[in-house]
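Open question from group meeting: does this chain pack into something compact, or does most of it stay loose? Before anyone orders reagents, we agreed to write out a predicted structure and look at it together. Recording both the input and the output here so the notebook holds the full record.
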Amino acid sequence: MYSSELELRVRYEELRREADRHRLVREATEGQRAARRAAARSGANDPEGRVSRKRNRWARARRAAA
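Structure tokens returned:
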């Protein structure tokens, strides 16, 4: 496969860099997902705030009446 120690070291570095790139991409996407989930939970994007599913119909009717 690889004939010299130098080739082995180069291949090891390539694999390590590729693994680091994958890890960074995974961490970045997980961070974005967590930020979206937190915003959805807090109602940050909703001017009226978040309403639980149980109270959703009641709250919608109340807001419509207001």
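Observations to bring back to the group:
The radius of gyration is 25 Å.
The chain has a mean pLDDT of 77.
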